[in-house]
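Input.
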Amino acid sequence: MKKIDKIVNFMRALEEVCVVERDLLLYEGSRENNAMHIFKLSFLVMLIYPYLKQPVDYTKMLELALVHDIAEGKTGDYTVANQLANPELKKEKQKREAIAIKELKSMLPPPLNKKVSNLYKEYEEKKTLESKIVSMLDKLEANLQANQYHNGDVTYWKDCENGNEYYKMASLKKPMIKEINEDIITELEKKIISLSLENMKNCHISSKS
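Output.
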């Protein structure tokens, strides 16, 4: 198959990512999908980059943001709430996504096939500073989006499968953010936790729900 045919087929496969729905609601009530999340995460990378103290590869971070959820086009979304409630799901998720990435890799011509596969592996392993930062921004972007429905109506969390886990997570700091030690990311986490707790209070919900 010609290179251009492979690229076109891969672009078609990316449409599968665009239709994967997440638990989170947009401000007007429609469900967020993976493409929306990837778009916003990529912008968040751009917005925090100028304020990072440590030297990082900006292009690499954008590429990691673009690639990090593409396996879910094949596997669907394993929500954080479900993984917390059912820890065995994490292993199932990793196994199914590894198969999906191999399939996606096979669709691309070299050197793109290795590049996409290596980026996904780097994100999953979280050994590089870039992958750690993007991983934490991924979590923070999701937590921020969770608070956008109707200017902070977080009562819908309980309607999600194992949704009470979201209330428990709302006030928790992430150890990796402390490890990264970047003021802008620490401030962002503090702001989002504060917003979550304020919205939960306004909705008469306890973080121990």
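Residues 61 and 134 are 6 Å apart (CA to CA).
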